[in-house]
Amino acid sequence: MAENKVVIIDYGMGNLWSVASAVKFVGATPVISDDPSTISKANVLILPGVGSFRKAMTTIKEKSIDMAILESLQKPRSKILGICLGMQLLGVSSTEDGLTPGLGLVKNEVVKLANHEKQIKIPHVGFNIVQKPENSKLFDQISNDTAFYFVHSYVMQFIDDPQKCATTTYGQKFVSAIETDQVFGTQFHPEKSQKNGLKVLENFLR
């Protein structure tokens, strides 16, 4: 595996130990840290998260984690994976608790799942099918229409952008994963998605 050490960003709102265990299982060394210096020097970052977008961004800015992430990504070979709330934080903004700016690493906005005529339950909880993009690195050697585990109420909107995205349908079609040269994200939890989730992590790390 090209990158052996993985810094898992700790801002107080993530499934840190579950993610660390999964990273270790696929052969890498997890380092949990909220230290900007450690984060900025890392080549491989994972940004997990559950809970409030606004609270997460407040903590991330207070601890200068946002600047550390941007500094890390100045290195051409560095990369980041956002998981669940962590993926949403990669976007430009969220409508949760008012309009809150995100990290802006992808141009998508985050909005609440639409629930027309109360046809679906929110939050969206459980395994659901992911349609992967063509020539996907994140879903390499994973069959299309594979199910992954979700727990969320907000989703990334689609925009016209060259970034690749996977999709899932739950009342509406939404972005369930993103991948660019350096920025990756999964709305689902790979660490809770059994062998296919572990394969996604392995593909990201490779």
Count of structural domains: 1
Distance between the termini: 5 Å
Q: What is Rg?
A: 16 Å
State which percent range the strand residues make up: 25-35%
Question: Helix segment count?
Answer: 6
Largest sheet: 7 strands, mixed
- CATH classification, class level: Alpha Beta
Q: What is the annotated CATH architecture?
A: 3-Layer(aba) Sandwich
Helical percentage: 10-25%
Which class do the helix and strand fractions yield? alpha/beta
CATH topology name: Rossmann fold
Low-confidence stretches: none
How many strands?
13
**CATH superfamily annotation:** Class I glutamine amidotransferase (GATase) domain
What are the secondary-structure elements, in order, as H or E? EHEHEHHEHEEEEEEEEEH
Mean pLDDT, to the nearest integer, reads 93
Q: What is the topology, as strand order, of the major beta sheet?
A: 2-1-3-4-13-12-11
Can you tell me the overall shape? globular
